[in-house]
Amino acid sequence: MAETRMNQVVEERVAGGVAWIRLNRPERMNALDAGLRRALVEAVKRAERDPEVKVVVLIGAGRAFCAGADVQEFADRTGTMPEIRQDYEALLTRLRTMPKPTIAALNGVAAGIGASLALACDLRYAVPEARFVEAFVNIGLTVDGGVSWTLPRLIGVGRALELFYTGRPLPAEEAERLGVVNRVVPADRLEPEVRELAERLASGPTRALGAIKRSVNHALDSTFEEAMDFEFHLQGVQMQGEDFREGVRAFLEKRAPRFQGR
Questions:
Q1: Which range (88-92, 148-152, 251-255) has the least confidence?
Q2: SS3 (DSSP) at 252
Q3: What is the pLDDT of residue 15?
Q4: Of these four, 87, 103, 110, 190, which has the most CB atoms within 10 Å of its CB?
């Protein structure tokens, strides 16, 4: 049964084990101001804690995923750097580390912190019109939102620095070639394709998916031996679970497994 929660700037909908979190400031291309920023922090926190949620999807309303920070907030001085930093760190760190798959459905431009938001997710699907923009240099700033960590790991230091130095947009098709985007799909297929993937993952072995994510995140800053040791540790934990036993039974009985997330 679907459950929808709505406020002025974020729509949350849970259906089929998937939490759809939709940024809802289309008139500002979903630029993050204090209200949207804090609403997103709370929405992602709820999705992580909800046992009915197995997968989290972020998407934008209107023609943009997220056009970045609302620069008007800086002009009005309505947000302070410590507050903004606290919100960004809580949001981005939670997306990257929660033991659930996270997917960014890029229905349009992802600029600045919007790009960081997408890059903090595990997977990214995009429409052909989508693009990543790191144009901090154009307003005399360095990059933020952890993008100096995420983007070089996806496309290499040289390509990442070129985008940071020049502010050149990275179109969806080039992003797919470079591995930033998993798949580019027509606009009318974005939500159906993401839903199909998300619901497939939601019906899978929840704890194993979480362990896979932990393994990959751990390996990013580990030696080969440390990564292998951590994998074996997590495998030992997973082997105590019912999903592993069900997976083995299903394999031997030549049928599809019925995972319960245990």
A1: 251-255
A2: helix
A3: 97
A4: 110
CA distances from 68 to 13, 85, 125, 234 (A): 23, 14, 18, 37
**Range list of H helices, 65-126:** 71-76, 81-97, 113-119
What is the phi/psi pair of residue 116, to 5°? -60, -40
H-type helices in 169-223, by residue range?
172-178, 190-202, 206-219
* Alpha carbon separation from 90 to 22, 216, 246 (Å, rounded): 18, 20, 36
Maximum Cα–Cα distance for the chain, whole Å?
65
CA angle at residue 139 from 8 to 81, to 5 degrees?
55
Residues 19 and 56: their CA atoms lie apart, in Å, by 5
> At residue 137, what is the residue type?
V
Q: Give the C-alpha distances (Å, rounded to integers) separating 262 from 53, 56, 203.
A: 14, 19, 12
